[in-house]
Amino acid sequence: MIAYINGDPEVARRIELIPELLLPSIVIGEMAYGANQSARRDENINQINNFSSACEVILCGESAAYEYGRIKSNLKNKGTKIPENDVWIAACAIEMNLPLLSRDVHFDAVDGLRRVGW
């Protein structure tokens, strides 16, 4: 969602079409990591807080953990790797039966995940 925070008009258009934006806590962690590595740490943390306050933050629970195990196993069997946190993000989306808004095409390797790109 960094693209949205950075003012990408296409992702902003897509987000405006979504009646309720759900944000996995893992995504906040990813954004916070980037903010803490940046020269404008406080400004970026503030932007993340503003963005996340407009969303419903979801936690990955037990059902998502089982999805994580299924996804990681399937990816290993395919010989495909994606970033570890992205496996968790995909698991949260699948567990809630929701599409995932992302430009990252590696999510397309996850069976059962609907990715919406821009």
Explain the overall architecture.
- The protein has 118 residues and is mainly alpha-helical.
- It has a single domain, classed as Rossmann fold (3-Layer(aba) Sandwich).
- It is built from 6 helices and 4 strands.
- A two-stranded parallel ribbon has the order 1-2. It has a two-stranded parallel sheet with strand order 3-4.
- The longest helix is centred in the middle third of the chain and has 17 residues.
- The model has no long low-confidence stretch (mean pLDDT 93).
Q: Enumerate the spans where pLDDT stays under 50 for 5 or more consecutive residues.
A: none
Task: Could you tell me the CATH topology label.
Answer: Rossmann fold
Termini gap: 12 Å
CATH superfamily: 5'-nuclease
CATH architecture: 3-Layer(aba) Sandwich
Mean pLDDT equals 93
How many β-strand stretches? 4
Q: Rg to the nearest angstrom?
A: 14 Å
What structural category arises from helix and sheet content?
mainly alpha
Q: Compute the number of helices.
A: 6
Strand order of the largest sheet: 1-2
Helix content: 55-70%
Class, according to the CATH hierarchy? Alpha Beta
Shape: globular
Mind describing the biggest β-sheet?
Answer: 2 strands, parallel
Number of structural domains: 1
Strand content: 5-15%
Query: What string gives the helices and strands in order?
Result: HHEHHEHHEE
Secondary structure blueprint with pairings:
Layout: H1 2-5, H2 9-16, E1 22-24, H3 25-37, H4 41-53, E2 56-58, H5 62-78, H6 84-95, E3 100-101, E4 115-116
Parallel strand pairs: 1-2, 3-4
Helix pairs in contact: 3-4, 5-6
